[in-house]
Amino acid sequence: MHKNFFLKFFNLLLVLPALTCVAFLSVANAAENSPEAHEHGVGNLNIVLQADEIEFELEIPSENIVGFEHLPETQQEKNKVQEAVSKLRQGNRLFAFPKGTGCRLEKADIDSSLIGEDSHSHEKHDNHNHDDSHQHQEEETSGGGGHSEFSAIYHFDCDKMDQMNYVIVEFFSFFPSTEKIRVQFVHPNGQGAIEITAGSPKVVFR
Question: Rounded to the nearest 5°, which phi and psi values hold at 120?
């Protein structure tokens, strides 16, 4: 989990009952460190809702996105990566909110070891330090496991968060190789977890 996103996730969990917080973090940590954490066809999505904003952190194997996990070698493979980044940037099309929430995409950061150093995609530049993620990408590229992933962080500002009772994840329409996404969410009144698929892409915040 990206450091800045984790801090938001953790800080919001602190307002929840202690036992709920411990249980939720235990599940999240187990999922992240499980040998099956990198599973083709499966992605992981964390969602934080607070005040007037909602933020998503998506991690998904490159195989789901471009059909391979090695560094692109041919021009065709490079084009696939560029096309995937272009699709992933479109957070306002990947997530559908209830009418009246007035949500606007403020930032979309896309990272992967498959993306060239000069091509890391940041929809909106800010002062956040991305050294940690770049270091992780270098380790991922040189590692012997042969796995690679795409990660994305989306930040939306919303006018009426009190009407934010669900979100529909349209990701499957853009990347049909994805079979399911494991979702964890946290908001001031609670937290939850769910698995979504192309046939059932709605995350309801209860």
Answer: -60, 130
CA trace torsion 64, 65, 70, 72 (10° rounding): 160
Q: What is the 3-state secondary structure (H, E, C) of 186-204?
A: EECCEEEEEEEECCECEEE
Chain segment 20-43, per-residue pLDDT in tens: 444 444 444 544 444 445 688 999
Pairing relationship of beta strands 53-61 and 121-122 according to DSSP bridges: unpaired
Q: Is-contact 48 185, C-beta < 8 A?
A: yes
User: Which residue(s) pair with 47 in the sheet?
Assistant: 56, 185
- Distances from the Cα of 75 to the Cα of 64, 80, 81, angstroms: 19, 9, 10
Convert the pLDDT of each residue in 45-59 to its tens digit. 999 999 999 999 999
How far apart CA 194 and CA 185 sit, in angstroms, is 9
Residue 127 CA from chain centroid, whole number: 20
- Tell me the pTM: 0.74
Q: Taking CA 25 as the corner, what is the angle to CA 20 and CA 26, rounded to the nearest 5 degrees?
A: 100
Q: How far apart are CA 120 and CA 114, in angstroms?
A: 10
